[in-house]
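Appendix C reproduces, verbatim, an entry submitted by the partner laboratory led by Prof. M.T., so that reviewers can inspect both the input and the predicted structure.
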Amino acid sequence: MNFNNQSVLITGGSKGIGLAIAERFALEGANVFILARHQDELVSAYERLEALRTSPNQKFGWIKADVTNH
């Protein structure tokens, strides 16, 4: 599939299955934003995504949040 210029937000994106999904979207050209509770893990995951950049226009970002906390 072509995900160029498409944006995705992945909860739990700092490790495990969430990070694997984020990496796959990054390789497919998507703009990838990850959300998780722990900032240090988010920063590490963000750096991994940056290394997978397929286009200079591709965007990545992270959000520190807990989806179980209203």
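Helices lie at 16-27, 39-51. Additional entries are available on request from the coordinating office.
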